[in-house]
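Supplementary Data S3. Sequence and structure tokens for construct A.
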Amino acid sequence: MNSFYNPVAIYFGQESVQACAEQVRKQCSLFSRVLILTRGGGVDRNELLAPLIDALEGKHTRVLEVTLNNPDIADIYKLLQSVGDFDYQMIIAIGGGSVMDAAKALSALQHAQINSPADVREYITNEMYANKPSLAPWIGIPTTSGTGSEVTCWATVWDEERGCKYSVSDKRLFADAALILPELTVTMPLRLSVATALDAMCHATEAYWSVHSNPISRAYALQAIERIREALPQLKENPNDLDSREKLSLGSVLAGLAFSNTKTTACHSISYPLTLLHGIDHGIAASLSLAVVLKHNYATLIEPHKLLRAFGAEDADGVQRFLKSVYAAYGLSDSLKAYGVAEQDIETIVAHAYTKGRMDNNPAAITPEELNLMLASLL
């Protein structure tokens, strides 16, 4: 399929803040109540965002801090309780992927009758939001560089009680606008910086080989991988280097655009139980299987030499060496054992690794027996 669709208006860099603020002002002429979700730490008061906040003058606003990671069914319910009787008509999300996911979930749950976490679960799993005439519009301002959530139309909501994750997916969940300011990412801890960068690299790589891949998504993917590969060594040398932060921010949004049309594949599907059951950072969890899945998929790839070149590699082993060098530089391990995974855990991980809409996007089918061997090779 050679079609591509993404309606998000993207504003990149400080010089675009005023233009984004003008869009907010126009949209807010239709609404009177705006919910602002932030990662906390007063980021909504950052002087870079002053024109955008000024555009909300005269509107009723409520600011909620979303300090959680990987929002759970129970977390979304608590957020709704915090919103209370504030009948939001629009959402502005300022933060990382978890804040963006929360914004999309609240967009889908607008005006829903929710009285318990079980109601949230039922609403999401039965896709009851799909029958609504409209969802709350939202604007994304990422403070991390990796999730690409500001340009995709789905959110991940975890269910720790049941040991699984859900996807809230609807084309109406595309943001109206995304404002990308690399300066907002400078304060990210180094581990979070590399974890989110690896996540973006996986988004791009999986978009390149997805069964839903198209020429446009592949072009975005290659550009994303190159920028992230170039930025990671620079970032390690100087975490405050704005040039590397800009490359990572651009790489993240390009990767987001790439997989906004393809979704992810086996690497992400495998990562979910690694995160849910063993607490491995999402981006790291997704990247751990990237090289072995690449080798498994290699014969199916369209123009594999272009993908290898983006990684600065000549073959799949070269991609694996690059990833190992990143782990080593940032004090991470490429061994599942280092993250608390034992041989006896593999069977359970395999049982939870087949997420519909992710594993079946992979170009080469992976049997449970093959996945068992892949994971064993990563111990």
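Construct B, processed identically:
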Amino acid sequence: MLYTDKTYDSQKRLTNWVRTGKESGVPGATSNGLKQYRRLFRNNINNSLSQAYPISFEVLSDEEWSTLVDEFFEKHDAKTPHIWKLPFEFYQFVKANNFSEKFNYPFLNDLVHFEWLEIEVYTMPNEYPQPYVKSGDILNNVLEVNPEYRLTQLEYPVHMYAAKESVNHKGDYFLLTYREPKTFDVKFMNLDPLHVLFFEKVANENLTANQIIDFIIDQNNSIPRDKLTKSIIGFLETMIKEKVFLGYAENYLN
């Protein structure tokens, strides 16, 4: 059954009141009832966002956090009807509306992105690796990558320092966020540029460590091969231990 024009108008007025708190002339409603109705809605949104972004909630002042929530509540046209999906839209809203500049917190975009990544990776659909075995030649066999990850570049190392301290360490940082296969715990790892190159070559091109070492030396033959190989073996052993590399891909074993 379609709404009548009168019902539709009343609904729009109520929605406007709930989102803005501004008098909208909702027919048949009492002022106190409307205030309680708006309070309940806003509290639900605020609770959902403060739980999704606990670090941002802690770092921002009460006034700054309330400003974020109120502007999001009033101005953002949500794409999802599910409150538990709103944190992603909140992250997009904060970034798109330059709150990092408004609040003079240069790290804010990276901080909300970092906090969102934990939610995204934790709730991502299951992705399954190709068949692999635990034993192999670390330099000459192709490694199987845990497919449940996100690799992200950040300007401020909010994953390494307290948020406000990260301002003093601006640079290029690469954050690997991944889900541990058995426990489903979300873990974080900072990668340097060389290890990012190595990781992406393994993940996207199915190259062995020695093939990647050959590629790196071809690009820069001033790097001693033995020193590079020793460094890479240490990196690979750590990645295997931390369940980023799961083992050796069966499809590429001799």
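The mean pLDDT is 88. The longest strand covers residues 173-179.
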